[in-house]
Design brief:
With 84 residues, the protein is mostly helical. The chain has one domain. 71% of the residues lie in helices and 0% in strands. α2 packs antiparallel against α3. The longest helix has 23 residues.
């Protein structure tokens, strides 16, 4: 993972790279980076992955719920937009 140049990756690859790096190092900052990229690519389903890891690491439950609500809200907005 340390040999990967994150700048050479797509945003989707970056989201997963940060997520897996966070798993390997048990550091919250990598999971937050992952959340940023999952939101950027509008992958609200997989946004749950880093949120769950942050929960396991003891991060503030109310803050994590906000991430999930934001993801669910955006996901539903996209469904409505696609159905128009």
């Amino acid at each position: 993972m340390n040999e990967i140049d994150i700048n050479d990756l797509t945003d989707r690859q970056r989201a997963f790279c940060w997520y897996y790096k966070g798993l390997l190092k048990d550091e919250t900052k990598f999971q937050y980076h992952s959340i940023d990229f999952f939101v950027k690519i509008a992958d609200y389903y997989r946004l749950r992955l880093p949120v769950e890891e942050l929960r396991k690491l003891g991060e503030n439950e109310e803050a994590l719920k906000i991430f999930l609500r934001k993801g669910i809200s955006n996901e539903e907005d996209e469904k409505v937009t696609h159905n128009l």
